[in-house]
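Troubleshooting log. The previous structure file for this entry was overwritten by mistake, so regenerating from the original sequence record. Sequence copied from the archived sheet and checked twice against the printout by T.R.
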Amino acid sequence: MKRVLLYTFLLLGVAIFAAEELAAQARIARSEFICYDKREDAKRDIRTGIDKYIALKPTLQFETAEGSVRAVYEQAFEVPAAWNDYNAYLHVESVGADYTVFINGKLITAPIDQFTPTDFYISPYLDQGENTVAVVIVDEAYMSLLDEALTEAKREQFANCYIFAQRRLAVYDFNVRMLPDSLDRFAQLYLDVTVDNSFSTTEVIEVGYDIYDPAGKLMEYSVNDLTLEGFTRDTLSFHPYIYHSNPNRWSAENPKLYPLTLYVKRSGILWEYIPLNVGFAEYGYNDAGEITLFDKPLKLNKSNYNAAADSATTEREIRALKAKGINCLVPSYPQPKWFYALCDRVGMYVIDTAAISSPTDASNRDVDGTPANAPWLEDDYLRRVETMYRRAQNHVSIIAFSLGNGCSGNGYNMYRAYELLKSFGDTRAIIYDGAEGEWNTDL
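Regenerated output below.
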């Protein structure tokens, strides 16, 4: 009973005083990735050899109807002294309900929707020795306003939830594209790597990569030094030409991928490997309202589809859809990372969609008449849209981004969401069917 009261009291306190401040402290929006200690493990996604990786499967502690709390799941884990020089991150998905996260009894975020896999920066909340992470299932009425018509596919609860740690001088995020060179002769790699220095002192890091063609031939590699002052971030950019690449232009009919490994070195020692698969494709859209690939309109045969319970079942279903002539999937909310990798490999276009679906009162343009025009929900809209974009932006199968499902109203929040995605400078179309002739959709 004491823990019930503790979680309920803290949640009430946050709701009254500091929900948005807490959300800003821990929740982050970046590419979804982990770092491997060995190159071969990175290629095969073998996580047992990662020194600072903890698989999470919290166990049910109790269920309740007190306040907004419905259930509490907890897991204890050890933080050794060696983690003092590391930044720790928590990844949560497949919870099955809206939730908040507590670390050692401290609430670190406002409520999170169940549909969007989410990362949290948790180092400030950890203690040396034993720690406890609690995933607290909540029932907040306002959360259901944003996704009232969505139903999440049934998966193993807490599948792919984990904690992992990176050195305090490490890759924070990356953006990768392969686009035609200025004369359309071959591809040019655009790899931008954001490096974070969380030390107070000036540090030097070496960031490198190598990229192979679909047949396994090494095409390019490079290692560059970067000096960062304490508590700063900076970006290293690599823009080499990738020759003989035109036969490997990616499409649903020709899904050829270039394996790329990003790695970090310091004092000549390799630290971390981040595996990627890059496709050679340039997306856009034209005045006729068509999505383009290499400036040519794509003929799309779409199907609404969300990933099944596991990747094997999903692959069978996607291949069956492809055999029927479907070449574009439109999920209703952000999917597991392996879904996008599967579409990259199999050859299936994807229109990625934020977890927003509010058909009730969608036509009411009064302030608060629809969630899309309720300014107090702005941060929730922007977080869902940005997380959707950031975590999967590097997948070549994604041809466009949708602000939400069907007609979910329009207004201030949808305008701001459109402006946010536009500010990232991506050439891919931003779509919103509910714009109904207004300016916040490209098609």
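The first helix runs from residue 2 to 26. Archived copy saved in two places this time.
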